[in-house]
Amino acid sequence: MNLLSIGASYRTADVAVLERLAIGEPSVPGLLQRLVAQPYVGEAVVVSTCNRVEVYAAVSGFHGGLGDICNVLSEHSGIPASELAGHLYVHYGEAAVRHSFRVSAGLDSMVVGEAQILGQLRDAYHAATEVDSAGRLLHELMQQTLRVGKRAHAETGIDRAGQSVVTAALDLAAEHLGADLAGRSALVIGAGAMGALSVATLTRAGVGPLRITNRSHERADRLAEAYGAIAVRFDELDAVLKEVDLVVCATASTVPVLTRQRLERVGRELVVLDLAVPRDVAPDAAGLPGVHIIDIDSLATSRRAHPVAAETAAVEQIVATEVENFLGWLRGAEIAPTVAALRTRAEEVVSAEMRKLIARRPEFTEEQRGDVSRTLHRVVQQLLHSPTVRVRQLAAEPGGDQYAALLRELFDLDVPLATQANAVPEIGGKP
């Protein structure tokens, strides 16, 4: 098995494509099950955020795995596979490991260094664990991916400014509302993870009065209480829109919350930050007089012009080191079935010799037979210990995959291909 990551992000697709690809939380289990039911896909983890949709998979073949995953994504999104291919990026083997580590460290984010992706990756991993779509390879990859992300944030200053998609959006909003947002009235629509982040960010910026609404009023009420904001009922949305300067939309709705007709009735200057995918603001609302809409496409365009933080060099070094460590683990693990087969062969030889000895010396008592058997086993284990430890060490080094093949050849070991494939992927192989 080998690692394959396939996805679309703000770098390769506009928000119209991303919202069709977006995978709502209730749909994740079913999609994971469809993925692992494909002929070439053995394991799968799905990540879906406001600016990326990615599949991490363990596949038995590059082209087969690529085709299987693309077909599932095409079926889910309704985008023909031929059209979808133009929006996807693909990483295989070592490149897939590097990509996952860079994502967790915030290097591939729209806002470099943002930490929200760590929580999103953790949620994706938990979802895969719950439906048992992550096997040994993806369990190890995701655990190390989360650890690398934490290390990058703990050991460097990449997130020292506390940047996030919300802060980036507020930077753009300030161009319409003035440099200082303090004292501006705002409304957050949605009380989920992104809504909570928006409330926290707006509170730190001194925005207020701050209102929160959600279809579930209880969630809005709890969030408002935590930040000293005001919870308003969802059926009061039209009235509240006429009283605020800034709106942040962050719901999980599959249909627009702010339609053109609703925004036309506002009758005043309004800045709307649409951080949802699918979009919370209807596309036909663009261009309404006095309504300034900032969505993921706007953010992607603006952030590309920003210089990369100096701290990214240190994070890239961490990623490079951790990728090599992970590849070392994979190379070392690849030899495990061969070492197990060698030990099994040794046990078989001991057992065969014991049977011959017993046939020749039937006068031996059970105690004597046990003593001889234990002695032979100890001798064999001691003889094998140092070589097997050393071969594991050698196998973990670059080019170490040759040692498993050599052991199989030298001792004429029969290690089924299925056992080898399930034990560890062949990272670094050619597509």
From TrEMBL:
Gene Ontology molecular function terms on file: glutamyl-tRNA reductase activity; NADP binding
UniProt binding sites for NADP(+): G190, A191, G192, A193, M194, G195
Catalytic residues identified in the record: C50
InterPro entries: 4pyrrol_synth_GluRdtase, 4pyrrol_synth_GluRdtase_dimer, 4pyrrol_synth_GluRdtase_N, GluRdtase_dimer_dom_sf, GluRdtase_N_sf, NAD(P)-bd_dom_sf, Shikm_DH/Glu-tRNA_Rdtase
Residues with site note (Important for activity): H99
Amino acids binding substrate: T49, C50, N51, R52, S109, E114, A115, Q116, Q120
EC number(s) on file: 1.2.1.70
Domain notes: Possesses an unusual extended V-shaped dimeric structure with each monomer consisting of three distinct domains arranged along a curved 'spinal' alpha-helix. The N-terminal catalytic domain specifically recognizes the glutamate moiety of the substrate. The second domain is the NADPH-binding domain, and the third C-terminal domain is responsible for dimerization.
Other known facts: During catalysis, the active site Cys acts as a nucleophile attacking the alpha-carbonyl group of tRNA-bound glutamate with the formation of a thioester intermediate between enzyme and glutamate, and the concomitant release of tRNA(Glu). The thioester intermediate is finally reduced by direct hydride transfer from NADPH, to form the product GSA.
Name used for this protein in its record: Glutamyl-tRNA reductase
